[in-house]
Amino acid sequence: xxxxxxxxxxxxxxxxxxxxxxxxxxxxxxxxxxxxxxxxxxxxxxxxxxxxxxxxxxxxxxxxxxxxxxxxxxxxxxxxxxxxxxxxxxxxxxxxxxxxxxxxxxxxxxxxxxxxxxxxxxxxxxxxxxxxxxxxxxxxxxxxxxxxxxxxxxxxxxxxxxxxx
Amino acid sequence: xxxxxxxxxxxxxxxxxxxxxxxxxxxxxxxxxxxxxxxxxxxxxxxxxxxxxxxxxxxxxxxxxxxxxxxxxxxxxxxxxxxxxxxxxxxxxxxxxxxxxxxxxxxxxxxxxxxxxxxxxxxxxxxxxxxxxxxxxxxxxxxxxxxxxxxxxxxxxxxxxxxxxxxxxxxxxxxxxxxxxxxxxxxxxxxxxxxxxxxxxxxxxxxxxxxxxxxxxxxxxxxxxxxxxxxxxxxxxxxxxxxxxxxxxxxxxxxxxxxxxxxxxxxxxxxxxxxxxxxxxxxxxxxxxxxxxxxxxxxxxxxxxxxxxxxxxxxxxxxxxxxxxxxxxxxxxxxxxxxxxxxxxxxxxx
Lengths: 165, 350
Ligand SMILES: Cc1cc2nc3c(=O)[nH]c(=O)nc-3n(C[C@H](O)[C@H](O)[C@H](O)COP(=O)(O)OP(=O)(O)OC[C@H]3O[C@@H](n4cnc5c(N)ncnc54)[C@H](O)[C@@H]3O)c2cc1C
Ligand code: SF4
Ligand code: FES
Ligand code: FES
Prior knowledge:
With about 160 residues, chain A is an alpha+beta fold. Chain A has five helices and five strands; from the N terminus they run ββαβββαααα.
């Protein structure tokens, strides 16, 4: 029996047939939709490389059964820039050297976007580090990552104020 | 992962009917179940996905000042609910000390209670484990025992229950609401998880097919809000399971303790309520000597399950420190590093 699954992925509505309910959101994104920006590190919830936004909230896509999220709205790293204009978090990662090999970076950026939406950390670097602890970086780019998140938060707040004015 | 049948009930009654099938298992956030299925450690014939059942994700205030937490309330939503965090600060702190922000967004209240042990041998399909295969033996005995139990273990299983959330819940007399083939019932959380005895495969009071619908806290729990803390010692400051944790709370009249609450985490197969320590503190002065006596009482029955005797002294110190912090008063805002002994200011009172 094949199962039908509807998702909105980066703004595009998709209906997919699943021959097998075992597929995770991570494998669906990478293998079915060829959105390989979302990375598979551990496949066990232990590294954060697979972080996506599901209905606006960051989760580990490796521990999410795709069929369970029928109807969900998904944002991946491929969907955060506006054409050639980088998302402020992407720009801040470049400006602050928030990466070295780059493998963890899509997950870091999606996690940071989720963190900024949660709006729990304020400008306290200790709270930012704690809130980013679900994303491991084997290259140890943590100092740059924390600076990038804080900087993106400032630039998004400034842009928000300019927009409101 | 084995092949399974997927079912998505729209009501509790439908879910319970679908789960009556042998081999059926409930699916909530999936953060523990999928992990175990990927390792072929759990092989359900059917997954009954409860996440589309409406009405199970509410945080409802109760007339007695308590609260009912729906089984599908996500760990993050509960911790960040301002009213909940104000009245039950040690529970919010414990939730925020668990896993990562991503996992807390997916993990549910019901799933957190029923998460399985993190015993490394349980997770290794090649090891003998009485929990996975009753009667197979226990490779943890005589193996790597650093994280294993010091209370309530048996020769058949020395694993711990790793939840942070459950520790303050049990200290505050939480009640589990259950629905099953035989109807509705409830069970105090203190009696919900089982000690291993000679049936370590039976981890909770749930009968086959029963599901958790909610967790309830009595209004009395909120009376500790001004002096309630969770303290968690782990290998790294965030995104790690506890080695030992404690939830400690006081109701004070001046410097006299009217009532104390204490539970320990990651020391046994269940969140460990320490009634003897609480009784010792009732009517006593809130001072370090008495907190030390309470810590002794809490660990009086402890014995190492191998090379993990260090956890007994560590647990005593965690209890003492947790009471010192609770006595100093619940901070207005949860500290930047929740439940961490390394948080800025956490050492000030010692
Ligand atoms: C890397 C990592 C780190 C973690 N660190 C911590 C930590 O530090 N502290 C901590 O406390 N936890 C930690 N966790 C565990 C996490 O809290 C649990 O995985 C989570 O709470 C489980 O909730 P869930 O909704 O995802 O449950 P699921 O994975 O969906 O289910 C877990 C179990 O509960 C059963 N179940 C779920 N809901 C119900 C219900 N309503 N009725 C009956 N049965 C039900 C399922 O059948 C299954 O057996 C960590 C997990 C990971 C992967
Ligand atoms: S301690 Fe318990 S869970 Fe671990 S291997 Fe032994 S029986 Fe299995
Ligand atoms: S791949 Fe999902 S957390 Fe590592
Ligand atoms: S940049 Fe290499 S793992 Fe993070």
